[in-house]
Amino acid sequence: MRLAIFDLDNTLITADSDHLWGEYLAERGIVDGEHYRRQNDRYYAEYQAGTLDIHEFLRFSLRILAETDPAELARLRAGFIEEKIAPIVAPGTPSLLARHRDAGDHLMIITATNSFVTEPIARMLGVETLIATDPEQRDGRYTGDVSGTPCFREGKVERLGLWLEENGADLQGSAFYSDSHNDLPLLEQVERPCAVDPDEQLAAAARERNWPVISLRGD
Q1: Which structural domain, as residue segments, surrounds residue 126?
Q2: Confidence (pLDDT) at 200
Q3: For the segment 149-200, what is each residue's pLDDT rounded down to a tens digit?
Q4: Which of 16, 111, 160, 166 is the most exposed place for a label (fewest CB within 10 A)?
């Protein structure tokens, strides 16, 4: 099994689905718009700067899952995918996924964004395996807590390692595509790292290491 691994936010899609989900909730009055937007923007800025406390952010972002009826959550998510996510798939994403699929690679999305938000995005893109931050569930409802290790920075390496062990796979011939310096721990583990429309820090690291740099936004 040769893996083709993809970050999601600002890689396969042209914005951050976690941040957009918060915006979507605020737009619809599901959360206190002004206060929630301010917090949502602060956490996103900290993510970009590499200073995010992932556990603090998850307490903020997962609370709405616990406070909302599951049927309402499903309705909101369906609207979110249709209105906010489908239009921002990067133009080059379908061809990149198709190239790896045609080569017989096993496609995987690995993302810090929680699986509630990202499961339907992975399905929409036709990617068979998703490793994401998992919100805890109990008796059919979300608790507001996280289950297991958040899939962020070194946590991506840990979560992927568990998946490899469970599936009898390894990273031989593997590729990983990402836009973010937060993914350097995993980019350094694969055989074929690739920076996609990278942030400033990742672009510098890619130049230093002679990694390929591509754009999915211009096709």
Answers
A1: 3-13+90-214
A2: 97
A3: 999 999 999 999 999 999 999 999 999 999 999 999 999 999 999 999 999 9
A4: 166
Q: Residue 219 pLDDT more than 80? A: no
Q: Which of 64, 87, 110 is the last residue of a domain?
A: 87
- Judge whether 7 counts as a catalytic residue: yes
Query: Based on the domain organization, do 34 and 76 belong to the same domain?
Result: yes
**Tokens read off for 29:** 């009055």
pLDDT, tens digit, for every residue of 124-146? 999 999 999 999 999 999 999 99
**Global pTM value:** 0.96
Q: Where are the beta strands (DSSP E) in the chain?
A: 3-6, 106-114, 129-138, 141-147, 175-178, 192-196, 213-214
Q: Which two tokens stand for residue 162?
A: 């568990």
Of 9, 18, 105, 197, the catalytic one is 9
Catalytic residue among 7, 16, 105, 197: 7
Written in H, E and C, the secondary structure of 148-198 is CCCCCCHHHHHHHHHHHHHHCCCCCCCEEEECCHHHHHHHCCCCEEEEECC
Give the total number of structural domains in the chain. 2
Number of C-beta neighbours around residue 35 at 10 A:
10
Would you call 105 helix, strand, or coil by DSSP?
A: coil
